[in-house]
Amino acid sequence: MMSQSIEIDEMVSLERGEIDRRIYSDPAIFELEMERIFARSWLFLCHESQIHEPGDFFQSVMGRDNVLVVRQKDQTVKAILNTCAHRGNAVCRAEEGNTKSFLCTYHGWSYGIDGKLLGVPGFKTFYAGQLDKSKHGLAQVAQVASYKGFIFGTHDISAPPLEQFLGATGRLGLDMIAARGDMAVVPGIQKFIIDCNWKIAVDNLFDWYHPQITHVSAFSPGVLGLDPGRTTTEKIDMSDVNMDSGGALDMPGIGIIGTKFDQVVVLGEYGHAIGGPTASSLGNPDFDKGWRATPQARAALGPVGVEVAGHPNIFPTTWVTSVTGQVSLRIPRSPAQTEIWWFTLVDSNLPRETRDFIVSSACRVFGPAGVLEQDDGENWSQATAQTRGVASRRMKHQLTMGLGRGKIIKEGGLARVEGLTNEHGQLWTYHSWAQWMKGLGWEELLKATTPGEYI
Ligand code: FES
Ligand SMILES: [Fe+2]
Q: What confidence tens digit (pLDDT) does each residue in 203-226 have?
């Protein structure tokens, strides 16, 4: 193990906007992340709509622990570790389903949906009735809670309550989906692996500098169209895109991307952030603009929140894309491997046709068949691979765009920075990452991740 807090402070500099590349490749840092971030933080597990009936379960991941999120007979939700109390085998191989019990396929111990040990083959003969079954149930996740249908869990019994952990920034991110209607997850979670470090996949969601370059291949043929009825075959002339002269790229169904449009970055406690365009300057598909103009949206998001149209990230790894109504997890598998999960939510009251349209748009944009994530994944894996070389890793990652010029405005419980394209969201994520990695107590961590006056 590396010598911890001192080195971590040197690895992320909020002042210089520099990141030490070893944080993307060092196995010791990855191990420390598992302990200090993923075994402490509240992590998104699944949505209530996925586990309606008693016995419904969904298998999720917390760090490297597989957990079964199970609806109980009294309608409460439990999260239990998917590892047999006897000798560790998984007690469930299915990704989701409904069951009356969990049966281990190794020696046959069986458990109730609450995790209690029920049956032990040979209990009377081999064990002579001497095994205390009440002591060998499946382990429970320390805390489980739900915010507007989004179920989270934490391994840390001393973690603050979920709503407090989310704070105004995290709650706003989830409200952007929850407030749209009677939201339910479409069956079938898309899962795939990208060869990249999880932090590169996370910081990219605040990066509004790359779309006009990285996604030229996706935008120029006009295959992306998010508004029903808009043509998806318009071609874009890339030759007049000159970002320094304020030029902008008008993408069918997406809107205008360029330096001209206003950005707002919300910085939240514990590392949550929302970064991207303001609702009125962009850009967002007409159905999103229309929704934000409704009194319900204003009431749910508040006067500041209704203008925030960028990407929320609930620290560490829960990305909400409000426009396509999706939640994505970036699950760390190794320093150079990240598993991506996509949950797509639609309003159950919408007509079938509209729901189908939203789902097909979502699949076309993100996920394994989505054109954007194909472009992004190539960059992320190359950016990760080049952090491993002895000479390459001596160079620092640069996050200096707008550095020190981001005046933080505090209003309506939110801390925000306004301006043009910048790297404040990424920098805030790495700054907060460093605070978590120091192993601070919850109070100190809150203090260290409370936005100041400038970033
Ligand atoms: S490991 Fe599960 S019954 Fe033995
Ligand atoms: Fe991208």
A: 999 999 998 789 887 777 666 544
